[in-house]
């Protein structure tokens, strides 16, 4: 399992960090977590073939997690993009309708595969299984457990300020990595929960420039697990 961080910022991109987007690659197939950035273009930039993208999973409908869907869905509707069979998983029906309407407004009528999901197992193919867990960021926000090649990685999605909704299984069952957002919490106030996770790595993502970097430095000395700060372009392949 290979993880490529494409966008690691919070809701406001910077020159160094773009909005949320991470690509998990298993056996040459790509599985995308959030598309807050021009996804199709960024896949090309990082030399990933969009035709190998099996699915896009959206944690919640805020723009810094969804804005890149419009470009990607548009590319699926004309020219060589018609051969793309990527499935898009969205947490709300109104989100699905909005994306479909935008495509129709651009004069392209191809139906693209959009699934509306809720909590529980939402996707499985020969490479990966994806399970959604609710968070308290808003009424329809989720984290994702991705399992593949004998590895298990949990993406927290956006959470509440206490991160107390971190799923209990993360404390009792081993994971290879937990990728944890830091835009809506103070990491140094969450060290008890972070230290309770039964994982090899905690990778801090969704970074708010106004506080996350300082919070990371405050928390790092008291975190027992391998504690890493993500950056755009970072690759993890040693899971």
Describe it for me?
With about 240 residues, the chain is α/β, with parallel strands linked by helices. It has a single domain (about 1-235), classed as Ribonuclease Z/Hydroxyacylglutathione hydrolase-like (Metallo-beta-lactamase, Chain A, 4-Layer Sandwich), CATH 3.60.15.10. About 20% of the residues lie in helices and about 30% in strands. It has helices at about 40-45, 65, 70-75, 95-105, 170, 190-195, 210-220, and strands spanning about 1-5, 20-25, 30-35, 55, 85-90, 115, 120-125, 130-135, 140-150, 150-155, 175-180, 200-205, 225-230, 235. A 7-stranded mixed beta sheet has the order 6-5-4-3-2-1-14. A 7-stranded mixed beta sheet has the order 7-8-9-10-11-12-13, with no helix packed on it. Strand 8 and strand 9 (about 140-150) form a beta hairpin. The radius of gyration is 17 Å and the shape is globular. The mean pLDDT is about 95.
Q: Would you kindly provide a brief summary of this structure?
A:
The protein has 239 residues and is of the alpha/beta class. It has helices at residues 39-45, 63-66, 68-75, 93-105, 169-172, 191-196, 212-219, and strands spanning 2-7, 21-26, 29-33, 53-57, 87-90, 114-116, 120-124, 128-134, 142-148, 151-155, 177-181, 201-205, 226-229, 235-236. The strands form two sheets. Strands 6-5-4-3-2-1-14 form a seven-stranded mixed sheet. Strands 7-8-9-10-11-12-13 form a seven-stranded mixed sheet, with no helix packed on it.
């Amino acid at each position: 399992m290979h993880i490529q961080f494409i966008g690691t910022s919070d809701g406001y991109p910077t020159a160094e960090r773009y909005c949320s987007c991470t690509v998990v690659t298993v056996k040459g197939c790509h599985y995308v977590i959030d598309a807050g950035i021009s996804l199709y273009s960024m896949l090309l930039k990082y030399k990933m073939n969009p035709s190998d993208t099996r699915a896009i999973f959206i944690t919640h409908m805020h723009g810094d997690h969804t804005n890149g869907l419009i470009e990607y869905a548009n590319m699926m509707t004309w020219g060589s993009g018609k051969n793309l069979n990527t499935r898009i998983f969205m947490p709300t029906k109104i989100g699905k309708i909005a994306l479909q309407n935008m495509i129709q407004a651009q004069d392209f009528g191809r139906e693209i595969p959009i699934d509306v999901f809720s909590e529980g197992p939402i996707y499985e193919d020969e490479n990966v299984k994806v399970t959604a867990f609710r968070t308290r960021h808003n009424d329809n926000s989720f984290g994702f457990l991705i399992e593949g090649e004998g590895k298990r990685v949990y993406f927290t999605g956006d959470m509440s300020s206490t991160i107390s909704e971190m799923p209990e299984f993360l404390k009792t069952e081993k994971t290879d990595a937990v990728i944890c957002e830091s835009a809506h919490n103070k990491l140094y106030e969450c060290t008890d929960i972070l230290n309770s996770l039964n994982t090899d790595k905690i990778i801090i993502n969704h970074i708010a420039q106004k506080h996350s970097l300082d919070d990371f430095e405050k928390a790092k000395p008291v975190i027992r697990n391998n504690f890493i700060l993500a950056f755009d372009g970072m690759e993890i392949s040693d899971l």
